[in-house]
Design brief:
3-stranded parallel β-sheet, 7 helices
Amino acid sequence: MGGVYGEDLMAKYVAMGMRMIILGTGEEKYHLILTDAAKRYPDQMRILLRYDDELAKSIYAGCDMFLMPSRYEPCGLGQMIALRYGTVPIVRKTGGLTDTVMNYNTNTGRGTGFVFDDYTAGALVDCLHRAREIFRDARKWKRLMQAGMVAAQQAM
């Protein structure tokens, strides 16, 4: 299967030491892939196939990163909510995601999140590696979080 989803990608997340929670619904084929992955990696992954606004707020507030690898996204509120909570968005360069998330620049320290171009698992994993490297530097990560919160406040 092409794109940014699939069994190989889930194994890469786990190998990177990431933990993931997915809340919401979508296409049935992704429900099956993600449910299977959550069964294979119960300590690293949870999937909740439902709408729950209150739980979503807790997840935004408690996560370090928000992953939105959309093929197409005309607007996108998820990344804006994440920025408000200080959760760093990782998004694909498309539509409203491009307009609202400024890719982190390691040379200048400026940005509000991480952006990748190609709708491929490889591009997503490379972006996750970049994010993880900055996450390891608490001072840089805090500045990135704060920049996102300021950007979200200014956008309101």
